[in-house]
Amino acid sequence: MFESLSGKLTGTLRNLSGRGKISESNVRDSMVEVRKALLDADVHVDVVTDFCEEVVQDALGAKVTTSLKPGEEMIGIVNQRLIDLMGPVESGVMLVDPGPTIVMMCGLQGSGKTTTCGKLAAYLKARGKKVSLVAADLQRPAAVEQLQVTANDVNENAKGVGEVTCYAEPEKCGEYGTATGVAVGVCKRGVKHARKNKVDVVILDTAGRLHIDDELMKELRGVQSMTTPHQIFLVVDAMIGQDAVNAASAFHTQLAVDGVILTKFDSDTRGGAALSVKRVTGVPIKFVGTGEKFDALEEFHPERIASRILGMGDVVSLVEKAQEEFSEEDAENIAQKMASGTMTVTDFINQLKSIRRMGPMKSLLGMLPGVGAALKNVQVDDEQFDRIEAIASSMTKKEKNDIKLLGKSRIKRIAKGSGTNPSEVNRFVKQFDMMKKMSKQMAGGGLGSKMGAMKDLAGGMDPASMAGMTGRGSTKTKSNKQRFKRRKRK
Fold first, then answer.
1. Do 387 and 262 share a structural domain?
2. Distances (CA, A) of 281 to 47, 90, 233, 342
3. Which of helix, strand or coil describes residue 441?
């Protein structure tokens, strides 16, 4: 996310590093490029104008720190202005006591509203809450059935000790003549059912439309009037850019929305919606959807997003993800093995699986300071880790404990069993041995060191090396292709 904007902003601001000091002329010159970068990212033009002028005024009025270079000063100023642009935000769900807390979800069709209801339920389940999803979308075919399936999946597969159920009246779906009143009735009875069953949070999945119209708003106002929700969340697709901001403005005018949930945030390389919504509408972004799985819903923190945009990583979010997967005891145990150089293939695979559950490798590595820019043009193929796991699964217990046992015949057997070839198995053996030595040197370096070791085992940051590990050449750069041709001629 923010790949294009991040590269342009950091490049422009660091160009100031060669200047002796911050002056009005070089600041305004830089802001011309910053303005272009923001407009290219589909940030609202009024927001861009105000933002650039505020940065100029801050820069000219700043007391220059002698220990910092002009480029570093400007990055600090822009970072704070980005935080102000997207915040302040009280992320998460405000819970009431006694319950139930009523959360009304609204949005246009195709924004991912029903799926987001499931993700929000999973978020609350992980925090020990009893959640009821109310299927009030009686317009879209199979919407009720989709929410029922979603509730069951979340309840059975999502983390946490909470419970998720679904209140539905599928027999009401055909009553389109009085659809508005029917949906309102379903929501009212759904809330009553939740109170009776001592549910902590009720999530109302209301109907959407392909566009904003009077019928849609009438239904939503009816639900709001009869259920008096404690919070109204608007679900919008981050990839539609300024249309997301326009939708937020229209819904907020009618319903006084409390927060926005941006879906497909991980696919939004521009970021215009994230940077514009709060300033244009006054409505804060509460959550962002970062994937398809139920746990791919993150609280929105402006300071962390600003840090990512400026290439400074997001270590806090990375640590939070790690804490969900690694217990303190497991972390201490693997750290001791890394320090002594006794880590086995089994230990490594267990660690690899835990890290993979945290999200795509490129996304995780991008949270490390200074790594995001290096990853910009690198295609990280997560499927290569499937092949590594397959190779490890084809080993015997003794081989996993002592990889030095692997001779030619064993390697051939492992390759056949894993669906790979002997050269891939040999590469794994060599790189695993190298990783053990590196891990011993980096012991105590924390999650970043672990991830670096995992990345090195998969072929390193060089795209050609990664292509070599996977047996596919789709990620080779031009220079590597030329090198390959030279070798072939020789």
1. no
2. 11, 16, 14, 56
3. helix
The residue to which tokens 């029903």 are assigned = 114
109/169 same-domain check: yes
DSSP string, 447-461: HHHHHHHHHHHTT-S
Same domain, 45 and 113: no
Bridge partners, residue 5, by sequence: none
Which amino acid appears at position 173 of this protein?
C
- The CA-CA-CA angle for residues 412, 416, 422, to 5°, reads 45
In a domain, 258, yes or no: yes
Conformational region of residue 142, where left means phi above 0, alpha means psi within -120 to 50, and beta covers everything else: left
Reduced to 3 states, what is the DSSP secondary structure of residue 264?
A: coil
pTM over 0.85: no
Decide if 14 contacts 70 (C-beta within 8 A): no
> Helix, strand or coil for residue 370?
coil
The 10s digit of each residue's pLDDT in 315-336 is 666 666 676 676 667 777 777 7
Is the pLDDT confidence value at 267 over 60?
A: yes
Last residue of a domain, one of 309, 342, 357: 309
Domain match, 131 and 195 both: yes
Q: Which two tokens stand for residue 219?
A: 């239904």
Tokens found for residue 166: 């679904």
CATH number for position 254? 3.40.50.300
Confidence category of residue 240, pLDDT binned at 50, 70, 90: confident
Q: How many domains does the chain have?
A: 3
- For the chain, first and last CA: distance in Å? 42
Q: How far apart are CA 93 and CA 73, in angstroms?
A: 36
User: Which residues lie closer than 8 Å to 310 by C-beta, 6 or more apart?
Assistant: 6, 9, 10, 13, 75, 78, 79, 82
Kindly state the helix (H) or strand (E) to which residue 61 belongs, with its residue range. Answer: helix 45-61
Residues constituting the chain = 490
The answer to whether the CB of 333 falls within 8 A of the CB of 275 is no
Distances in Å between the alpha carbon of 401 and those of 207, 208, 397, 415?
56, 55, 6, 18
| 222 in the same domain as 177 | yes
Structural domain range at position 21 = 3-86
Whether 300 and 340 map to the same domain: the answer is no
Task: Give yes or no: residues 334 and 452 share one domain.
Answer: yes
Written as six digits, the tokens of 268 are 């939004």
pLDDT tens digits, 93-134 = 999 999 899 999 999 988 999 999 999 999 999 999 999 999
Residues 329 and 300 occupy one common structural domain: no
Instruction: Say what angle helices 463-470 and 383-393 make with each other, to 10 degrees.
Output: 40
Domain end call among 35, 60, 86: 86
Residue 283, amino acid: V
- 464: Cβ–Cβ under 8 A, 6 or more apart, which residues? 475, 476, 477, 480
CA dist 482 → 218, 399, 486 (Å): 64, 39, 6
